[in-house]
Amino acid sequence: MSYTRKEISIEKIHQQEEICAKIKETLCADGKKPLALVDTYGCQQNEADSEKLRGYLSLMGCDFTDDEFKADIIIVNTCAVREHAEMRVLGNVGSLNHTKKNKPGQIVSVCGCMVQQEHMADKVKKSYPVVDLVFGPHELWRFPELLLQHIESNKRVFSRCDSDGVIAEGIPRKRDGKVKAWLSIMNGCNNFCSYCIVPYTRGRERSRRPEDVVAEARELVNAGYKDITLLGQNVNSYGRDLDCGVDFADLIRMINDIPGDFLIRFMTSHPKDATEKLFKTMAECEKCAHQLHLPVQSGNDHILKVMNRCYDSAKYISQVELARSYMPDLVLTTDIIVGFPGETDQEFEDTIKLCEKVRYDAMFTFIYSKRQGTPAASMPDPYTREDKQKHFDRLNQVANRISAEKHKEYEGGTFRVLVDGETGKDEYNLSSRTNGGRLVHLHGDKSLIGQFINVKITGSNTWALYGEIENG
Ligand code: 5AD
Ligand code: SF4
Questions:
Q1: Ligand index nearest the alpha carbon of residue 366
Q2: How far is the CA of 365 from the centre of ligand 1 (A)?
Q3: What is the predicted pLDDT for the residue at 472?
Q4: Beta bridge partners of 431
Q5: Residue 227 forms beta bridges with which residues?
Q6: What is the distance in A from the centroid of ligand 1 to the CA of 197?
Q7: 233 lines ligand 2 (CB under 6 A)
Q8: What does pTM read for this prediction?
Q9: Statement: residue 164 has pLDDT above 80
Q10: 376-403 residues labelled b (16+ CB within 10 A) or e (exposed)
Q11: What does the DSSP 8-state code read for residue 128?
């Protein structure tokens, strides 16, 4: 699918950085550092985008806070995938009326996928006067300019451009952690699954150039990051739009070649585009985690067809078998939607059957949410919320049982894990991840954070493993 690739020049990013310096002069005029809060909803791409917003805010001289009553600048980075997320955003934005009353001059900004939809941008404009600045995902690169426009005019600024192919390199970034990092390799989606809003909000699929991705991965490794997750709506189609002869498997190999002890993970993979070459590459590259998030969405062939997923259950299962033949220890996770318009009991049973056959390590389950403007929104949907809830609860029971059973199989074994943080609890004070990404709670000194260690698994439940550090 063609799109108009719009590369933002590095000069333009430098101009934005100069605007940050100008804003800093205004905001820090009284000698105090302004406080900023970035509240992120939705997927990891949004987390990665918020790191860029924080990068700009840092250049504006801001420190960060979690307290909306203290913040001088609030940015709500929104998601549009399900109605529930939108409702939460609107509820929280509405409550900022109180904070702004307490703190006149507080700047409230809403960005991200939710406000890329015209009807939602209009709703914010009409019903949420507390909001000063609105911009969509294609304009994140020029957030400083838009903020300055608001500061100088003291007027509300609404900017929602409909570009389908913005690529901006070189935006400064303030990353959240020191151990795990997100690395966005592409943006947008071309698949138009019939229920999904993402292709409308994030535009067409466009890949960053391999040299830019590899350079960023190298920076991350040099900065000490040990766990790098490559992000894209469908990483398996990486490079198709570039014509540079590098596909996703090649990209993994290029990153694997960077010297250092670190792990490469990635998400999300569309089953229709996962290739044998990818599985082979994952198996051969010693830094690539044996972990695959392969959303199936449904186990019924008719539902898959009306979802426009471009595979059937047999094809999906053969992909799983192929991946497992290369990586017998593969950790496999998925997304499933229940209650797609018209989904019958029988069709739902096919999803249960598929889950029992595949036996996922973890499943992310969702009740279908109608998204205005998508094809599924105009499909007949005769089943009630209660019908859907019943299916949802049943699916979760199956998912939880299988996860617990799979976790049980770890008990007694020794695994190499990466310690990634503290839990805040006394007994199991550290959290870590196996190569396949399973969560392991441990007891140990916090100086272990950022290190790979061997752990003997002593207990487990649906959600996590529990282990003891092995000496030597
Ligand atoms: N309703 C419910 N779930 C959805 N997802 C995407 N769109 C919808 C929707 N309209 C789910 C899919 C996708 C995950 C990120 O969110 O399962 O893989
Ligand atoms: Fe949405 Fe489908 Fe694209 Fe995923 S692949 S972002 S579900 S349209």
A1: 1
A2: 9
A3: 60
A4: 421, 441
A5: 180, 263
A6: 9
A7: yes
A8: 0.96
A9: no
A10: beeeebebeeebbebbbeebeebbeebb
A11: -
